[in-house]
Amino acid sequence: MIELALRKILKQVKSSNPETRYEALGKLYEYKQQDGLEVQIDVLIEVIKTAASSFPERVDRWDNPSFYLIDFACDFPMPEVVEGLIKHFDGFDFHAKERAVEFLILTEDEEVFYFLEDKIVQLMNTEDYNIPIGELSSYPMLIKGILDATLDKIHSDHYKYMMYDLILSLNNSGMEQGYRKEIILSCMVTDYHSVKQEYLKFDPDYSTKYVYTAWKDSYFIVRNKMRLFISLMEYYFSKETAGELNEALRFNDPLIKTEALLVCISKNLPYPESVLLESAKHIESAEMTYWELVDKNLEHLYPITEGKQPLLAKTRLFYTVVNSPDDEDVIRYPEDIQVVEKVETENSYGQPIRYYLMKFKEHQTVYVGWVGGYALEAGDDAVNLWDGSYTDFVEFDSASIEKHRQDFFEKREEEQLIHENSVYFESSPKLSKGAWFFLALLIAHWFREILSGFNRSILISIFFTVVGGALCLYEITKNKKRKVSIIGDQLIKQDGSKQNSIFLHDIKKIEYNKKHIFIYNWNQELAFKFPLRWVRYEVFSYLINEHTANLKDRPFIQS
């Protein structure tokens, strides 16, 4: 049983022997990788309590049981886990606290947010804390509370740019645009001037190839800071920032230039039409220009009216290649990207999509790339896509176009087959409370018999033990044939030889009461139901949400 193994790990991670701790953490990591793992809640609480206790002195960076135990517990989104993390939070290691904060943000619970606001402020005042900007970005009230208590950190070298990120998120949310302008504007302008001087060292020699083959991280840091400040200028505007925006329109970096252009458009400032056209066509900024205009409801300003798909497909392939996992000593930089032909097919939901067979040159070798799939239901030149873009760095001249197309479809079929047979969730009912109650009585009975020296006939005890054991064994055997699974794109209920299933995109609604979970289709008909005790509802609903997040029409899932 997993619970016995975890309890053993909890003892081993407190061992004075580093090798024992290392092996225990390795075993914990193996369990963490298992899909659909279920653990009894009392053991998860033990995991949290242990993480809050003391450990032997560390011998290396890996030697942090508190963090790895909390990281394991955070894979189980249950109310009891949330309560345990809050109760024992102060005892965790610093990095374990960081992980717990990221998890607790996802609860979207108002009471939890009050707790988080206090703890994040404490962490910022005592440690070099890495604020979870991405996780916080959807919760402006929480961001505002943190900013109100820590705005002075805008002068801190460690927190400065994290604070600006939070300020931008708060403004973007629309909740409080121009937040504390009297303080932030002057700080922002000063810091922008400092970063601009760093950028201007690069600007005269700017080329996309230099950025991705030579400058890399040393430049990306400067670029990201420039883009951050220019984005903030939309909300912290003055005559001085207007002049800075006008200057940025003449910079050579297409992403910085596009950022400035978008702010100019939002503030009704004049800009050259040539800059808009250049941003829309540049390999680095094409997708950014289109989608930012769409987000601002300004798609009508987009200067390219036909052939958007193949144009934006080049940008998509460019970033697919440059962001490929790094091979040792290999610099990824695609050149001469060309569309070869269109390939039309369907996605797993039967919707028509289009891929582009493309080719690009890298290190004097021409390779095949695939970009898509573009959703054709929205229009022949619509650029919404189910992203399946990739390159396997197959040489373009190694086969005919027909063979490349054939290989593409074979790869899709293999991946679809793997997906259809992948078990993403599986849960079976455990022994009923009645069976556990009977076993508890039986154990107590045998304990009394042993203490009394078996004064009464043992045959009656043996009889009830055999009968009770047989009933429990029957229930266990029956439960093995009862399960709820998410396999591929289907939710499946198995009850002995009977099976019910429904595709995830056909689910309209999931509800539950004290006894059952109900699955409804888009015709508002009950597809099937199953007992609530067959699953841990928190885990089940979380995974259903996760596997339907990409659907246009997502199901309602009772929380």
Describe this structure in words.
With 559 residues, the protein is an alpha+beta fold. Helix content is 52%, strand content 14%. The chain is built from 22 helices and eleven strands. The protein has helices at 2-12, 18-32, 41-51, 65-73, 79-88, 94-105, 110-126, 133-136, 140-150, 160-172, 181-200, 208-215, 217-232, 239-248, 254-266, 273-281, 286-295, 308-322, 401-420, 433-452, 458-480, 537-547, and strands at 335-346, 352-362, 365-375, 423-427, 482-487, 490-495, 498-503, 507-512, 516-521, 526-531, 556-557. The strands form three sheets. Strands 4-5-6-7 form a four-stranded antiparallel sheet. It has a four-stranded mixed sheet with strand order 10-9-8-11, covered by helices on one side. Strands 1-2-3 form a three-stranded antiparallel sheet, with helices on both faces. A hairpin with a 5-residue loop joins strand 1 and strand 2 (352-362). Helix 11 (181-200) runs antiparallel to helix 13 (217-232), helix 13 (217-232) packs parallel to helix 15 and helix 16 (273-281) packs across helix 17. The longest helix has 23 residues, at 458-480. The protein is globular, with a radius of gyration of 29 Å. The two termini are 30 Å apart. The relative contact order is 0.04. The mean pLDDT is 90. Keywords: Membrane, Transmembrane, Transmembrane helix. The chain crosses the membrane at residues 457-476.
